[in-house]
Write a structure and sequence with these properties.
Order of helices and strands: HEEEEEEEE
Distance between the termini: 72 Å
Keywords: Signal
Radius of gyration: 25 Å
CATH topology: Porin
Oligomer: single chain
Number of domains: 1
Protein name: Outer membrane protein beta-barrel domain-containing protein
Strand order of the largest sheet: 1-2-3-4-5-6-7-8
Number of strands: 8
Structural class: mainly beta
Amino acid sequence: MKKFTFLCLLLGGFAISAQAQRVETTPQTSANVGLEPIRQGNWMVGGELAGLGYNFEAESFNIGLRPRAGYFVSDGVAIGAQASLGFKSVKGDGDNEWTYGVAPFVRYYFPGGASASGRFFGHGNVGIAGSSAGDNVALELGLAAGYAHFITQSVALETTVGYNYNKANINSGGGQSGLGVSLGFQIYLPGQR
């Protein structure tokens, strides 16, 4: 009987200690960051992971990736460079194409309408682009508006809506334009002050 009582007490002790050590955690979905990530001297690294677009003139659908890196020259203003790699599906008899490009950019984070865990921003770029369909290099212009939601002190998820314009031959009169949406992320790294 003593062994049975001892075994019951031992099992009860294990059950109580296991219950006491049970920890429930939830993933972090936002962080109150204020202005710290976008201060002068900081860096940002990241990009668009799922960019979708539609070209009005060529009636084509495209998807692409855009890695980027930038430096904050003042509070809320970053300059940097971005690369692009994409796939364009052409409607009808056209051939599908792989696209590529490189462009410097400027990004401005608006002070108004911001929350402690998010910021609206404007993004503009001017660069060059090309495709697997030919040797021509195109002038590429882009304007976008977006929102960065900080999930930690240094990582933000972003969504953007924008307009792109490509002009394959600078001497010709025609060009192509289209709208796009994208999802991505940025990592904000503190600089030396």
